[in-house]
Amino acid sequence: MGESIVITSGKGGVGKTTTTANIGTALALLDQKVCLIDMDIGLRNLDVILGLENRIIFNLIDVLEGRCKLQSALVKDKRFDCLHLLPAAQTSDKNEVTPDGIKELIEELKPDYDYILIDCPAGIEQGYKNAVAGADKAVAITTPEKSSVRDADRIIGLLEQEGLETSPYLIINRIRKHMMDSGDMLSVDDIVSTLSIELLGIILDDEDVIRASHHGEPVAFQPDTKASISYRNIARRILGESVPLMSFDNDQGFMTKVKKLLGMK
Amino acid sequence: MSEMKHYITMKGTNKGIVVYLDDQCSFEILLQELEDKVKTSESSGKTEITVHSQYRYLTDDQRKDIAQLIDQYSDMSIKKIDSYVLTREESYELYDNTTVKSVIKTIRSGQVHEVKGDALVIGDVNPGGTVLATGNIFVMGKLRGIAHAGFNGDESCVVAASYMHPSQIRIANKISRAPDYDVEGSPREFAYVNSETEQIELDQLQHLQKIRPNLLDVFERGL
Ligand SMILES: Nc1ncnc2c1ncn2[C@@H]1O[C@H](COP(=O)(O)OP(=O)(O)OP(=O)(O)O)[C@@H](O)[C@H]1O
Ligand SMILES: [Mg+2]
């Protein structure tokens, strides 16, 4: 029986879709059966980042309205047999989507997958409510900017009321080390202590991420870039392994901090 | 007539003149005697008195009657109407407004934590989060959002935090906000309304006892 995880942020454009695609890819690399659901109806782009746009025939709304079977709407990934995408509709009326409908759909998927990752739209409106409805667990993504942390805090507050299995996990995306060091961005320490939830991983602000998305092949697929290692470490932590946060350079101070964060000596 | 006269007794105490009303006779008799007494008493300028109704519960209308009578026939004014009794509702209200309501949680952005009485937050109040209390607010964590103590108007309330770095503090109808430039917070502080400056001021927690010695005294606050 699979586990469903919703990827949220509150603020838009902080990397939900990129993270969903990459964690999905990284889990598939670890031989997990994964289904990605794009819940950003009307603004779908998970398919683009995965390079699957041309293969879409049916979408989520078609399934909910009974125009097709769930199976026939699922798009198989180019690279992995075990990675599937349930695309969002690009045009359809989103009023058709209800939390109960989504819940039912996810229950139907669970027996066939190990993980179901749900890409949540920005905001805290209906789209968010639908995306969260079928989730067992949640991830909140923030960048090291005040406004983004503020919105993540808001979303975490709402997620805590959802009765999820565990409290939400945190991913800090687009870290720029020199700006953190100069105090022009919040530090990892600051963010974790403000949001006070478990840190699942940190990801550098990295051109490789943008480049990979541009070519429709998530960066996590690459063997050895810093970003791909971060995503694969996150996947391993989701599987329950305890993987230390990687250091982004040889700065001893930063590593010490990171170890302290993880409660290590 | 003379046997009627002892339903009302005036006593000079260290808190000023207290007028004790008999609590067994009818209210009409009481009013009548009070009128006689007030009319005949040679008052020496403006005096404030306390009226004590003992074990009689006075309704709002009855309180008005008494106040009106004294106002009409004398220079005296009522400082306070006291009694030994409360209605059940009043006692619940008093209990509610003077007990500590605790939560173990982070008050996050967009969340409003509202309580009657004192609020004890075991956790942080994050930027964008709000705590409202009719009484005091104690934060065992970082206060970085908004805290509004005494929101029904009690200026004697305080806001205390393990780490004080609020975006705003309000006490009754006074407001103070963080400056526009970046400031560091400070550990173990409390905010209160300084009665001389009439403004919210911060001080170290160890001075709280000196500045608000009766902070947790139910009778001081509720009655
Ligand atoms: N670690 C990273 N390094 C560099 N660029 C990144 C990183 N993560 C995301 N981006 C870029 O940030 C932009 C927004 O990312 P993405 O679309 O994943 O955000 P989102 O939260 O899904 O946005 P929306 O709220 O619109 O759905 C994209 O251009 C993406 O390539
Ligand atoms: Mg997105």
UniProtKB/TrEMBL annotation, chain A:
One of its GO terms (cellular component) is cytoplasmic side of plasma membrane. Residues 5-219 form the CobQ/CobB/MinD/ParA nucleotide binding domain. GO terms for biological process: division septum assembly; negative regulation of cell division. Gene3D superfamilies: P-loop containing nucleotide triphosphate hydrolases. Keywords: ATP-binding, Cell cycle, Cell division, Nucleotide-binding, Septation. ATP binds at residues 11-18. InterPro entries: CobQ/CobB/MinD/ParA_Nub-bd_dom, MinD, MinD_FleN, P-loop_NTPase, ParA/MinD_ATPase. GO terms for molecular function: ATP binding; ATP hydrolysis activity. NCBIfam families: minD_bact. ATPase required for the correct placement of the division site. Cell division inhibitors MinC and MinD act in concert to form an inhibitor capable of blocking formation of the polar Z ring septums. Rapidly oscillates between the poles of the cell to destabilize FtsZ filaments that have formed before they mature into polar Z rings. Belongs to the ParA family. MinD subfamily. This is Septum site-determining protein MinD. It comes from Tenuibacillus multivorans.
UniProtKB/TrEMBL annotation, chain B:
Keywords: Cell cycle, Cell division, Septation. InterPro entries: CAP/MinC_C, MinC, MinC_C_sf, MinC_N_1, Septum_form_inhib_MinC_C. Residues 105-201 form the Septum formation inhibitor MinC C-terminal domain. Cell division inhibitor that blocks the formation of polar Z ring septums. Rapidly oscillates between the poles of the cell to destabilize FtsZ filaments that have formed before they mature into polar Z rings. Prevents FtsZ polymerization. Residues 8-81 form the Septum site-determining protein MinC N-terminal domain. Interacts with MinD and FtsZ. This is Probable septum site-determining protein MinC. It comes from the Bacteria. It comes from Tenuibacillus multivorans. Belongs to the MinC family. Pfam families: MinC_C (PF03775), MinC_N_1 (PF22642). The gene is minC. NCBIfam families: minC. GO terms for biological process: cell morphogenesis; division septum assembly; regulation of cell septum assembly.
